[in-house]
Amino acid sequence: MRTTRSRAATGVVAALATGALALGASPASAAASDGYVSGGGSFYDDFNDEGTLSTSSHAKSNATCLWQIILYAEGVKESNGTLYDKSDIDGKFGANTKYATKQLQRAWGLTQDGIVGKKTFGAADEKWNASTRAGELEYRGSSSDASTRYKLRYHGSRYYFDFYRTASGKYRFYHDSKWMYASYSSTGCA
To answer: Which helix (H) or strand (E) holds 101?
Structure first.
């Protein structure tokens, strides 16, 4: 028969072991180290744990290209005062993309640093509400094809675009007449 002291000690040991497991286990989330903009579970929180995009971080990548498509869809202004347009989508995070990102951050009420971090990227995947026409991301359907498992639509202020999340969680988008994965380490977006 256990005493109160031995039950308390067993409880403390169990709590410490559980805490150690929780600290050692990595969450089921995406990161630039995974190599792709990706997610799992709900679509409406996939972007808030992504890597940073800036003039010095993943500056030439398909992940940057995906961000530039979002800037285009939102209809923000670029540094010369015109709307960010399709010709600005080149997969290179330069001064113009930084300027446009600051414009979008201002519109979304975020810190205007021109860096696409967790809060900025995360603001892009809010759930679309068709009745109020609010939010950005809308679920459009699913498929048994692993490369196009979930079809999503991003609703910007100016345009919308469709893209996919694969069965493995990687995001794919269509640009320049081809499908591309939103990779942090490669670019085919020119």
So the answer is: helix 95-107
